[in-house]
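Hi, does anyone understand the following?
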Amino acid sequence: MIRLRPTHLSAMGVLDAMDAVVLSVDVGRRKPHADICQAAMRQLGVPAHDVWFIGDSYEADYVGPRRMGMEALLIDPQDTASVPPHHRLDTVFDLPDRLDRVTG
């Protein structure tokens, strides 16, 4: 599994599309623990329903955040998880366009 740090996100050209990056190593808990989601909400200063959580692990990055009331998109190009098609991304590079369609 690749652990994306802000430098990796910047190198891929997607860091500017994000308002916060919260790493489990900084919080001291692993996903899907609620502390991760709460740290993101504190960093953003917003309630859960205004947060989009993006990841590639069904339980940790999709189920956990949705349980907290966040929106979530799952990077699942092989369609292996049971999520609605509009909650699935083929690649992280699809994220800016998807968010533009949702927020635009």
User: Anything to note?
Assistant: The helical segments are 6-11, 24-27, 34-44, 58-67, 95-103. The two ends are 32 Å apart (CA to CA).
